[in-house]
Design a protein that fits this description.
The chain is an alpha/beta fold. The protein is built from 12 helices and 12 strands. It folds into 2 domains: 3-96 and 218-269, Rossmann fold, CATH 3.40.50; 104-216, Rossmann fold (3-Layer(aba) Sandwich). Helices cover 45% and strands 17% of the residues. A 6-stranded parallel beta sheet has the order 4-3-1-2-11-12, with helices on both faces. The chain has a 4-stranded parallel beta sheet with strand order 8-6-9-10, sandwiched between helices. The chain has a two-stranded parallel sheet with strand order 5-7. It is globular and about 50 Å long. The two termini are 20 Å apart.
């Protein structure tokens, strides 16, 4: 009954932590493609090929359902995967869906025409590849009208987080927020469009100010996954063991992950 969680690095651990709390009876297999991180500076074909390879590895672990806990992979590869590559007996889901559900206050299965929503000015903070894909704006446009999205590519933030340099990461966050505010001085909501960014949520909130509603993904994904598995229990795979896999150096990644989640984490070579 295992579920796979994939990320290019350590950011998806924020999602893993939330879904494990929401579904304590479900084993989760986490795959970090640390050897090829970050994905945010790669082209779409490269991201697609790396993501497919990771998902296939999770299928081998008995994970019929895989969550792409990576906004870059969700933006640049997911639609192509679902349309051309994923077999009928498997599911690969992304992290945009729960975020847009929360922002538009409508369920994903609601296929009624786009309508006005309360929030009109939205700031999106994401990796350069996610911003370039315009996937968030495309999915939002299916469900809402009259929403102005200003996207800020946050170069360097993921690298600083992965390297454990919190001071640099906070400085970069302030710089990116200032850059966005020059273009959109008064956003009503902010989307933290990378699963690394919850670790810097305090810095985003401080830079944005208390009047801006900040949407972070981990808890929204957990709630959505719990609902999905209640409706589609057939996609609980055959795996029975929780584990952590990496394409990087297992000891080095384990040390960083332990620091990341503030509890012991042991990665194995993928």
């Amino acid at each position: 009954m295992a579920v796979g969680i994939f990320d290019s690095g350590l950011g998806g651990l924020t999602v893993l932590d939330a879904v494990a709390r929401a579904l304590p009876e479900v084993p989760f297999v986490y795959f970090g493609d640390n050897a090829h991180a970050p994905y945010g500076v790669r082209d779409a074909d490269d991201i697609f090929n790396l993501t497919c390879a990771a998902v296939e590895r999770l299928w081998l672990e008995g994970c019929d359902l895989v969550i792409l806990a990576c906004n870059t992979a969700s933006a640049a590869a997911l639609r192509r995967m679902q349309e051309t590559w994923v077999p009928d007996d498997k599911r690969v889901l992304g992290v945009f869906v729960p975020l847009i559900e929360a922002l538009t206050e409508r369920q994903w299965g609601d296929n009624s025409p786009p309508r006005e929503v309360a929030v009109k000015h939205v700031a999106l903070f994401a990796t350069p590849a996610t911003v370039a894909s315009r996937a968030f704006q495309r999915e939002l446009a299916y469900r809402a009208i009259g929403v102005d999205v200003e996207a800020q590519p946050c170069g360097g933030v993921v690298d600083a987080i992965e390297q454990g340099d919190e001071i640099l990461a906070e400085a970069l966050v302030r710089s990116h927020v200032e850059a966005l505010k020059r273009r959109m001085p008064m956003p009503e909501a902010a989307i933290l469009g990378c699963t690394h960014y919850p670790l810097m949520e305090h810095a985003f909130r401080a830079a944005l100010g208390p009047e801006v509603a900040v949407f972070s993904q981990a808890n929204l994904v957990a709630e959505s996954l719990k609902d999905y598995l209640n409706r589609r229990p057939e996609f609980l795979g055959s795996g029975r063991v929780s584990k952590f896999l990496t394409t990087g150096d297992p000891q080095r990644v384990s040390d960083k992950a332990t620091q990341f989640l503030r509890r012991p984490i042991r990665f194995e070579a993928a």
